[in-house]
């Protein structure tokens, strides 16, 4: 039983560290979207896109 508990704790700790690293990296390398991109997308016809 101790082996299973220690394995769960070690894997949980590794997962927690990996999640924190991924969170930090995603915040550091975040790319802001240009607001004009959404405005141009709204102006384009979206019906049957790719049909022509």
Q: Topology, please?
A:
Layout: H1 2-28, H2 35-43
Description of the structure:
The protein is mainly alpha-helical and 52 residues long. The protein contains two helices and no strands. The protein has helices at 2-28, 35-43. The longest helix is centred in the N-terminal third of the chain and has 27 residues, at 2-28. The model has no long low-confidence stretch (mean pLDDT 88).
Structure keywords:
52 residues, mainly alpha, 2 helices, 0% strand, metal ion binding, metal-binding, iron, 4Fe-4S_dom, 4 iron, 4 sulfur cluster binding
Strand content: under 5%
By secondary-structure content and strand pairing, the structural class works out as: mainly alpha
Biggest β-sheet description = none
As a percent range, the share of helical residues equals: 55-70%
Shape: elongated
Q: What are the segments in which pLDDT stays under 50 over at least 5 consecutive residues?
A: none
Mean pLDDT: 88
Order of helices and strands: HH
Can you give me a brief rundown of this structure?
The protein is mostly helical. The protein is built from 2 helices and no strands.
